[in-house]
Design a protein that fits this description.
This protein has 187 residues and is an alpha/beta fold. The chain has two domains: 1-97, Rossmann fold (3-Layer(aba) Sandwich), CATH 3.40.50.300; 100-187, P-loop containing nucleotide triphosphate hydrolases (Rossmann fold, 3-Layer(aba) Sandwich), CATH 3.40.50. The chain has helices at residues 6-15, 21-24, 35-41, 50-63, 90-97, 111-119, 145-158, 174-184; strands spanning 78-81, 87-89, 100-105, 128-135, 162-166. Helix 6 runs parallel beside helix 7.
Length: 187
Amino acid sequence: MVLTSEDAVFLRDATGVQDDLELICPVLWEEPLAPLTAARRANQPFFDAMPRVREALEELKRRHECVVVEGVGGLLVPLQQSANGDFYTCADFANELGLPVVVVARRTLGTMNHTLLTTSFPLQAPARFESLVFCDAQPVEENDIAAQTSPQIISEMNGLPIWGEIPYLDDLSPENLQRVAEKHLRF
């Protein structure tokens, strides 16, 4: 059975790149779960995915001026576990490569705690928290006070700049994504 990542197809189409899906998503499990969970459920609990991920990233860096690495669910999501019991997380990957981390969060009630906990995690230099982007996964009411106030308070508390607030989009066409990015993202 050949697996295809719908997310990788979407990203390739949205960006207009011609890269193979195996470069965009070098490790794919049948179940859409945290990588370690999916590996365990596929009876491969000690699968070492990182060489394949690093190789794909290096190839993408050779091909493109800028490469965005998605944190597959969050900073502390376990990517894999070694036979000696050590966990390897997205934070470990960011630390290993010295990546700048952009935290993407929802503007819903509860986001202050989740986002501030994430940005209080100690990264190892040269990895660092770079900025915040708020993205609505669902429509947000105009009078939703939490959605209207949370981003600014989070930014004040952790000192990170807000690069944008993306409204809920029901049209994810590349043209609409480009229009929304130009309107709502600021670097």
